[in-house]
Amino acid sequence: MAVGILLVGGLGTRLKPLTNESPKPMLPVAGLPVTEHQILAAKRAGIHTLVLATSYLAEVFTPYFGDGSKWGINIRYAVEKQPLGTGGAIRNAAQLLEGDEPIVIFNGDVLSRHSIADQIAFHQEKKADVTLHLIEVDDARAFGCVPTDSEGRVTAFLEKMENPVTKFINAGCYVFSPDVIKEIPLGSVVSVERETFPALIAQNRPVFGYKQAAYWLDVGTPAALFQGSRDLVAAPFLAMAGSTIGNDTQITGGTAIGANTTIASGCRIDDCIIGDNVVIESDVKLSQCFIAEGTHVNRGTEKARTYLSNSSDLPISL
After folding, report:
1. pLDDT in 10s for each residue of the chain, 318 residues
2. Alpha-carbon distance 262 to 242, whole Å?
3. CATH of 2-218, one of 1.10.3720.10, 3.40.50.720, 3.90.550.10, 3.30.1660.10
4. Distance CA 103, CA 71 (A)
5. Distance between CA atoms of 168 and 164, rounded to whole angstroms?
6. In the UniProt record, does the keyword Nucleotidyltransferase occur (predicted)?
7. Three-class SS state of 58
């Protein structure tokens, strides 16, 4: 068994304008918020308690997730008054966890299908202080790379470089032993990537890389969010419970439609993300649009690569 911390306090600057009215972890992917996909993954891995480390628009999370009983998991909330960085956020949230179980850290804008349960087992087998999920990419220049030795022990935690020494990169899911988190100063701004991990490696502490080839995507940009939604839909479209679609409406391109949304007749909708409780009138044509929750789209509207809400009509760069 294990517990977890989900880092959902980021501003989502790269995702604007989609994050103008919603924190990035609550943006829908294949009909569910990114955070809900991560909670479901945590539950599958045997994690029984999960702390959401929030900051920006923190008040959005509690009404949706509550105490977690809907998902069969105990959810708690740690709110940062000021952003503390990844390490500071982890240390702050860990105060709400008890016991000596491994603590799994989830990055709030990553979709991954790797086996978290196997990563936890690897961590325990190696008696590691920290175990990082590593993935291999074709071109590691855009990422920090993480070389390991023959036993899987991390030998360096390197920033972006023109000639990476390995194709394995940090995939943003960590398993910590609780005592290591207690070493992070409470209330301080700390980056685990720039401070904690390099310091542990310099001290020759047992930091390991868990390598598994599995689906992984950082959904930190509009283009990546759309890709992640299409990947999970894997069909012409997906409509959540309570949604209705009118006659002679064609929906294609892996479009995701939220719950209790109404789409009238004669519409043509391709490669869109549509939130909950949206009303789309007849003869609307939308392509690569993000329609925010509760939006009303008037009859005959034609838009492409646009963020639509009841208060905004802004271009999306995809």
Report:
1. 899 999 998 778 899 999 988 888 899 999 999 999 999 999 999 999 999 998 767 788 999 999 999 999 999 999 988 889 999 999 999 999 999 999 999 998 899 999 999 999 999 999 999 999 999 999 999 888 999 999 999 999 887 888 999 999 999 999 999 999 999 999 999 999 999 999 999 999 999 999 998 999 999 999 999 999 999 999 999 999 999 999 999 999 999 999 999 999 999 999 999 999 999 999 999 999 999 999 999 999 999 999 999 999 999 999
2. 9
3. 3.90.550.10
4. 19
5. 9
6. yes
7. helix
Chain centroid offset of residue 82 CA: 21
CA distance 229 to 29: 5
The angle subtended at Cα 173 by Cα 224 and Cα 94, nearest 5°, is: 125
Q: Which fold has domain 235-315?
A: UDP N-Acetylglucosamine Acyltransferase; domain 1 (2.160.10)
DSSP one-letter string for 218-266: E--SHHHHHHHHHHHH-SSEEE-TT-EE-TT-EEETTEEE-TT-EE-TT
Amino acid, res. 188: S
C-alpha 216/C-alpha 4 separation (Å) is 19
